[in-house]
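PROTOCOL LOG
Step 1. Enter all chains and additional molecules of the complex.
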Amino acid sequence: MSEPEAEFDRDIALDETEPGSYAADLRPGWVVGDGVNGGYLLATLAHAVRRSAAHGDPLAISAHYLSTSRPGPATLETRCLREGRTLSTFAADLSQGGEPRITALATFGDLDVLPDDVETTAPEPDLPPRDRCFGIDQAPEDFRRTAPPLLHRYQLLFDPATIGWAVGKPSGRPLIQGWFRLNDDREPDPLALLLAVDALPPATFELGRPGWAPTLELTAHVRARPAPGWLRLRHETRNLAGGMFEEDCEVWDSVGRLVAQSRQLARQPRPIVTGDPPQPRG
Amino acid sequence: MSEPEAEFDRDIALDETEPGSYAADLRPGWVVGDGVNGGYLLATLAHAVRRSAAHGDPLAISAHYLSTSRPGPATLETRCLREGRTLSTFAADLSQGGEPRITALATFGDLDVLPDDVETTAPEPDLPPRDRCFGIDQAPEDFRRTAPPLLHRYQLLFDPATIGWAVGKPSGRPLIQGWFRLNDDREPDPLALLLAVDALPPATFELGRPGWAPTLELTAHVRARPAPGWLRLRHETRNLAGGMFEEDCEVWDSVGRLVAQSRQLARQPRPIVTGDPPQPRG
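Step 2. Run joint prediction.
Step 3. Record the structure below.
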C-alpha cells in the first residue's frame, strides 16, 4: 500500500493484525487537554469498522469514552452484530496496553443509495465570509502559545461573533461556529465528518468557562456524503447542569446541506494544566 | 420479591438467569407500528444494567436497533466494560429466540452526587395547562380505533398547537409536545425517562407524514432525577433527508428542570398496516 497523501489519512491508518483486529498509532498532533481528541478517535474507530464491514459509510456511531487516550500504539477490535442487505452494525473497541479507552456501536450503510429527498428545517449557520472570520494565526500571542496541537491539524476560521472567549470577553451565549478544512486540503468524506463534529472548542468557552471538556459519550449521524470544499460547523449547548453539559454539532457542506449531526455529553471543563498526569475517568 | 404495583414496573421486570443475564417478557401493551416501542425496550435494557452495575442511574445510554422486537420472551445479557469510582460502563444486548434485537452501551453513575449547578439556556416547553390539552380520549373515533396499544400505557395530553395531524391538518412544523404521566400514577424516575423520550408520535406527523418510524439508533442522557408529578415532553426534527430523520426529545419535570435529552435516527414513517409480517431491518 502506498503512503496516503494527506495528514488525516496517514494518522488514521491501520494495520490489520488478524481478521477484524487492527493496530493504530495515535499521533501526538491530535492531543487536546490531557488526551487525544475524541473526534480523531471516533474517525479511527469508524475506519476500522469500514475495513471490516460490507457497507462503507458510518450512518450512526455511538462512542462511550472509558479512559483518556494517549499518543502511541492502540489496538482496535471490531465485531459484527448484524449484517443485513442495507445496513451493518458493529461493535468496536479501542484499547491501549490492555486498558479500554473507547467502546462504540456503529451502524454502517451506503449513503449513495439513500433516497434524495431533503426537507431540512434547521437553518444554515449564519457565518460571515471566510475573509471576515478569524483563524488561529490571528489569535493573540497568549492564545497561540498555549493552543493545543489539535488546532494545527485543520484550518478553523471562527465567526467573530462567537470568539469573545479568545480575548477574555465571552459572549455569554453558548455557541461557537466557524469554517473548517483539513490540512493538505484533504476533502471531506464521512470519516472526516466524524472528526469535524468534535473539532471546535467547547461551547462553554463562550460562557466564560475555559478548559477542554472530557467527553463521556458522543453519537454522530452522517446524513449525506459531503461535497468537496469547506465545511461549516455549529457547536452549541443548551443544558449545563450537574457538572456536565450536552453539546450539539451540526456540519454543513459547501452546497448547503446538513451532512452530519452529533451530540455529546461532556464533563464541565477543567482548566488546562500542561504536564498533568493522566486522569482516570471513573 | 413481591409483585411491583405499577404496570410499568411489572412490564420491565426481569429474572436473573445467571450473573449478568436476565429473562424478560416483552408485554403486548407496548406495541406500536409493527413492533415493540423502542423506549420500553431501552428502559428494560437499562433495568438489566442497573441490576448488574455498581451505579444505579443511567447517565448516557446509546442503543442501536437491529431487528423488530415482538411481544414475548426476551433474553438480556450485560457485560461490564469499565467500573470506576463514579461511573460504570456496560454493554447490554437484548435478543429473542437467538435473534439480536437491540445492542446498547450504557454509562451509569449516581445522579444524587452530581454538583447542583444548573445553567440551562434551553427554553421550557410552552404548554397550555393540562385542562386545555387533548388526550387520546378526546381524539376522533377513527384515531382512537386505530391507536396503537402503546398510547394506552400512559396519559399523554397534547398541546393543541401540535396536534393538527390527528384531525388531518398537520401544522407543517415538525414539533409535537405534551404532558406525560405513566399509568397507575407511577412517578417518574430515570428508567421512566428512558421510556418518555420515545413516547410521543414521530414529529413527522406534523409534516403530513403519518406512520410510525422505526428507530435505527437512540441515545438518551439523563441529567437529573425527576421530581414527582407530570413530565413535559418536546419532540422535534430538523433534518428529514435521505429517507431518515433525526428526532430530539426533551423531558422537563414538574419543577421546571430539563431532566433528559435524547436524539434518535429513524427511518421515515411507513404507513401503519395491521397484520403486516415482521420487517427485517437490513
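Step 4. Note key features.
Residues 272-280 of chain B have pLDDT under 50 and may be disordered.
Residues 38-52 of chain B form the longest helix (15 residues).
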